[in-house]
Amino acid sequence: MRIVAAVGLSETGKTLLLTGLISEFKRRGLRTFAVKHCAHGFMLDTEGKDTWKYARAGADGVAMVSSEEWAVLQRARDVGLRALAGKAFDGADIVLIEGGKEARGIRKIEVLRSGVSDVVQTPPDELLAVVSDRGAPPGTAVPVFTLSQTAEICDLILSQGEEAMPEIKLEVDGREVILNPFVRTFIERTVLGMVTSLGGIDPDPRKISLAIDRDGPSPKKP
């Protein structure tokens, strides 16, 4: 799975860019998914409908299913975009995100447009490319494209290594518990934060194992 976010100010052309990339990736036979990051919240359900009533009654999640498609709305406070992509789009080749400039650790394509934004704001270590209608901004060290160069941008994305999604497995009394994206992200961040605060621990550990036995150790035989 390759995950890339298109970032930039409103009216720069992020949606136009992603629709073009989706069409090109699908033409190449790749499973492609899109995520819209809504910084100010969103409302997909219709007020007064049954699913709206279930959510307002306090349901933690509501699903809608038909013979052609399905959708799930789930409450969450802070869903990591990478974790969400790995959980919701299992088997995806490409996940394209519109927005999410604050999300760390995701490769980004920044979209610039004359009269709207002319300065790159993405950190250099996350910037994959720039899409601009004015050519390369001064000091740009990454490839620069126009909105019409969808095939070239797709080639660049495919040249990147695939995402290594954290594998988190929780078992309670021998039964595996399915974790939603929020819980997966919470566990990862909490355990990683505690472990790396200990002395002598690698600040970027690759594998952490934790077991909690509430019965304690078995008593020793005399």
Shape: globular
Order of helices and strands: EHEHEEHEEEEHEEH
Strands, count: 10
The mean pLDDT is 83
Sheet with the most strands? 6 strands, parallel
In DSSP terms (H or I, runs of 4 or more residues), the helix count works out at: 5
Task: Give a quick rundown of the structure.
This protein is of the alpha/beta class and 222 residues long.
What order do the helices and strands come in, and which of them pair?
Elements: E1 2-7, H1 14-27, E2 32-36, H2 50-56, E3 61-65, E4 70-74, H3 81-88, E5 94-98, E6 107-111, E7 127-131, E8 144-145, H4 150-159, E9 170-172, E10 175-177, H5 181-196
Parallel strand pairs: 1-5, 1-6, 2-5, 6-7, 7-8
Antiparallel strand pairs: 3-4, 9-10
Written overview of the protein:
Helix 1 packs across helix 4 and helix 3 packs across helix 5. The chain has two domains: 2-47 and 76-159, 3-Layer(aba) Sandwich (Rossmann fold), CATH 3.40.50; 166-222, no CATH class. It is globular, with a radius of gyration of 21 Å. 20% of the residues are buried. It has five helices and ten strands; from the N terminus they run βαβαββαββββαββα. A six-stranded parallel beta sheet has the order 2-5-1-6-7-8, with helices on both faces. Strands 3-4 form a two-stranded antiparallel ribbon. It has 222 residues and is α/β, with parallel strands linked by helices. The protein has helices spanning 14-27, 50-56, 81-88, 150-159, 181-196, and strands at 2-7, 32-36, 61-65, 70-74, 94-98, 107-111, 127-131, 144-145, 170-172, 175-177.
